[in-house]
Structure formats: C-alpha cells, structure tokens
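Figure-free illustration: sequence to structure, shown twice.
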Amino acid sequence: MKNIGFLSFGHWSSGPGSQTRTAADTLLQSIDLAVAAEELGADGAYFRVHHFARQLGSPFPLLAAVGARTSSIEIGTGVIDMRYENPLYMAEDAGAADLISGGRLQLGISRGSPEQVIEGYKYFGYAPAEGETDADMARRHTEVFLKVIEGGGFAEPNPQPMFPNPPGLLRIEPHSPGLRNRIWWGAGTRATAEWTARQGMNLMSSTLLTEDTGVPFHQLQAEQIQRFRDTWKEAGHDWEPRVSVSRSIFALTNDTDRAYFGLRGDDQDQVGIIDNTRSRFGRSYADEPDKLIEQLREDEAIAAADTLLLTVPNQLGVDYNAHVIESILKEVAPALGWR
C-alpha cells in the first residue's frame, strides 16, 4: 500500500492549448483538482512554490482554501523555499492552514530550486549573514520554524497587555498540535537526506538529484532513502518518518493520452548541470497500463517510498488531470499492490 497524491507546478500562460491562462485560473483549478482527487480516492494534493514566476508563489491561502473544501486528502507543498521565509510569520500561516484542514497539512520545505531572478530572497528582505551561504540561511530559518511550531513559549509578555495573557512566556498562535511531525525536507543529495533525518523531518525526494554517481537515478534515490532511514534510526527519534518520491507517470488509455504523451522522448535518465553541480534527472513513464506496470516494478526508489507524488500537467485542465490521476489509481496501482 502507498499514499498516492498529485504534485502540481501551478503554471499559467496564455499559450495555445493552455486551460490555465491567469493566476486566478491556476488557483481556482488547483482547489477543484484537489476536490476531484479526493473524490477519486487519492491521498494527497501537493503544490510547488516558485517566486517571481507564473506559478504558485504564496501557498498558504491556497492550502487553507483546499482544506476548507475537502475533508480527508492530505494537503502539502513541494517545496517552500526557506530562503524567502520569515519563520515566525510562516509558523502562524502554517498553524492556521493546518487547523482549517483538521490536521491534514504535510508541509514540504527546503533550500529551494534554482531561482527565476538573481538572489531573489534579498527582495524579500533576507540575506545570508557574514560567512553564511544562502543554503545556510535556509537551514537557519528552518531551525527557528521547527522550534516555534513545537508550541513552547519564548516571548516575554507585556505587563500591561491589550488582552489578558496566559501565565508564562508566550508562543506563536495559532498553534496546531502535531504539525511538527508533518514537516518534510526536500533533499537533493544523499548527505542532505542524512541531515534531514538528524533534524527529525520526513524526506521528500523529487525527480532531480544534485549529484551523480553513474548509477541509474532510481537506484541512487533508493540509496538516498536508505541512508535517511539508517540515520533516522541512529538519531533515536521516537516516531516513524515518511518518505515521498515524485514521478511523471502517464497511463495511455485513450487517443488523447497517446497524443499528449505517447511520443515523449524522456524515458531515460538525463545528466546535466544545475547550479554548477553535475545532477541526474529521473526518467518519465508513459505507456499502456500493462507495460507501465512492468516498468514501475523495476523502480527501486518508488518501492522504497511510502508516498508517491504524481506530477500533473496542470495547464491541461481539471478534467484531464483528474483522468490522469484516476488512470493510475485504477489501471496501475492495484496490480503493483499500491491499492
């Protein structure tokens, strides 16, 4: 059994064939797709976060809206770039969105991906301290965020407040119990996966690893997952973590599927340079359901993960993306023991 959700990049454009032509289209269709996915029996609705791009940038209004329109599906991000975040304000937003959803928030955070603009976090008012890298700053913000969502008091109360205070130091409000154990870190390397385990966060691994050892992507990612679990055990945390992987998977069940994805040429790993680092990109899957099942049996990282996020082509509209999700849930997942 696996948790199966979708991951939307939330693009919008006015290009030919796009059904998400404005930011409003993307936001409203994201809510509708989450509702449809829940009705189909999917387990998660996750959204990418990119700043200075025609994509979803501010996740918490969307997460709260999805939480209010649904009742059971997990709601998450993949991932929030912590270089851009005020950790205290983020803790308030996250607590509110989690309470609205009844404790269904699964918040993916990380250092973030390559940016649309140069050092975009500086426009948001953040810059690394002397001797610190932007990645260091992201981890510093994360450390503060993780601490305050635990719910402990830390702020000295005003002796003459506007409203009565509870005794002792004050905490961030609203506080959502249990949220701390539903934070995920998007790790791009095996070493970062080990760091994630030491911090007590769940592991989120995408279709890109910013390292390359020459082995197939799924095997390198499976090693990353194993290192995470080994380090978690060594750290002695008292709860069981989760691991997610992302994949582009399309079951070709009709002529529309074949027209969109039947001739894709990305069924092999690719190696390239990201941020001056040799990186390995995982393959996509698109085939008839019976052939797709056999191909997916060989993916060691999917087998090792408890959660699979299906990347969806959101610009093709809600109905088609619901069909993409339903095809995997009904035509593929049962044969692989995921359902």
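We now fold a second protein in the same way, so the two outputs can be compared directly.
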Amino acid sequence: MSSRPISSFLSALPFWLSLVLVPLALIATTQGGWTVALMPLYAWALITVLDVISGLNTNNPDPMTPVTDLFWYRLITMIWFPLQFCVIYGTIWYVTRTDHLSTLELIVLFFGIGVISGTIGIVYSHELLHQKNKLERWLGDLLLATVLYSHFRSEHLLVHHIHVGTPRDAVTARYNEGFHRFFLRVLFECPHSAWKAETKMLARRNRGPLHPSNPFWRYAILQICALALAFAIGGWLGLALFLWQAFAAVWQLELTNYVEHYGLTRKYLGEGKYEHVMPRHSWNASHTASNWLMINLQRHSDHHYKPDRRFPLLQTYDEEEAPQLPMGYPAMGWAAMVPPLWRRIMNPKVRAWRKKFYPEIEDWTDYKTGATPLPKGS
C-alpha cells in the first residue's frame, strides 16, 4: 500500500472490505442454516485471523494530504447508507414473505444484520459526523436512525470528545468496571448527557430546549420514520426484527467504546480543570486487517488528538506515546464479554500505563471510581 499514491483506488481498496458483508447477507437470507452466522464469522473471526497473519501496520501517511486525494476513501463511507438501507429493509421484506427460516435462524440472521449496521454502519457514521460537509453529516444521521441511536451524534461531539477521560464522559469505562455493567450504565446516561449538552448550547443563544433548532427533533422524526417503514414492510415481525438488529448494533458500538478508553483517565489539575487530551488517553491498535474493516478507528489515539483528521490520514503511535492493545477490536471485544478474562488482560496494562505516564500520582482511588470533580462548566 505505501508504495502507491494515496489517491489511487488500489491504495483505498483494502478499506472496502465491508462490502463483502452485503453478499454474505444475501446468502444468509436466502439459504438459511449455518450460513446465517456468516456475517459475525467474517467481521470478527476471519478478520481476527487476518490480523494475526497481516500483523501491524505502523506506516503513517502524510497528514497534510489534501481532501481531493481521498475520493476513494470517502466514497465507501458515503455509499454505505443506501447499501445498509437496502440490506435491512430488503431482508425484512423477504423474510416476512417466506417461511424457510426458523425462529432461531431469524434471530441469528438479524444479529448478523446488526453487525452490518453496528460494526460498519455506526463506525462509518462516526467518520461522517466529524466532517463539515452537510451531505456527509446527513448521511451520518441517517445511518444512526437505522439503529435508533441518533443521540450518539450529540453525545459524541459535544460530550465525549470534550470530556473524555473525566467523570463527565459516560463512555470512558472505569477501571474494574465490567462491560455488562458499563453497557447498562451508558444506555441510561448517554441520552440524558446528549440532551443536556444540546439544551445548554441552546440556552447560550437564549433558546429553550424545545426550540425547532434542537437536533433531537430531527433525531425523533428520522427514528420514527425508520420504525414506521419497518412496520409497513414487515408488520409486527418486521418491527421486532428491526429492533433486534438495532440493539445488536448498539451493543457493538458500546463494546467498542468500552475497549477504546478502559481505565484511562486525564490528570486532574485542580479548580475543575483537566489536562489536555493526548494520544495517551486512548488505547491504540495498529492491527492491519481490523483497521481496514473499521476504517482506522483503532488509531483512536490520533483521532482524539486530532478529531477533524479524516480516517485515511490518522497516525499511529508507539508505546512511548500511547498505550497499545494486544489485539484488534474484534478480538478485544470478545475478551470484554468475559469480565474476569478482560481484567486479567487489561488491568496490568492500565497499572503499567499509570506508572509510565503519571508516576507522581500516588492515590488512584478517585480516578478509578470516577469520583474526581466534574470539569468546570460541564
């Protein structure tokens, strides 16, 4: 890849691995049986195997590359909404008019559809929502509406990026907090956090929380339309299957959030102030195949350091600048599902991170429990 111009289609081609999921969804829907497991097997098992084979990619592209050279990278994120829309609603239409799939097959199939809308769709929406281009931001909103998680836009941009590593950020997983407890916590805390951030912005412009400019109106309309379309196409069964794939997608998003920042906190400086966000405040992973599938999301240290940097230009860091995950997100996600295994792998790494970057902090009790003061003005 590094020997070709970054602007070439062949350089961008590995980031189009997500397209393989579309024919896999078609095969699973029409054939049933064991094929209903093809999508999670591809996205998690095969990609993890490819990570082992391909190793790490530590090459860093020129961060000053103009956006005009990134056409083929941007294109995959911009065509994903129509593809995902067709897969979700086309599958609902088909399975509610045929009877060759058992109940269990339908459950596994639409969990796999959730892999498409979660492992890929939400990751792509994340990239799109960080851009200034209105079309890209709208495509990001549409992708989030298909998983009923539209508030993620507000929470991610107005809370997570500003307050990551502090008690104000719900999705910074605390040390020793198991994923299942974390998942339930963020399902309740994040919508409220997003609403609070938006209404606070409105108040600065002397507008009330129900003002038409509040994006929650847009979120509500888009999500109601998504639900109504599922019901119109597939009735109550179609609606139930739509809700199941949405839940599976959100579960995968929060599993990723859990892995990205587990146990990492910013130093409290006093008077409601925290140190600036640095690469050290996110877990970094340079694993090649999973970064292809998830468009460099695992170069998360640089994403938080430079949030406006498009995914092909994200930099990776060595262990002197950022903590390193031992495996890519798919494998780490499975480990997180077993809290004792997760703690055995990650807790020693968190403790080593503390000694390396913050040897002056002797008592970590408040950091571990999220009891340090809230950031000023939050």
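Summary for the second example: The chain has one domain: 9-369.
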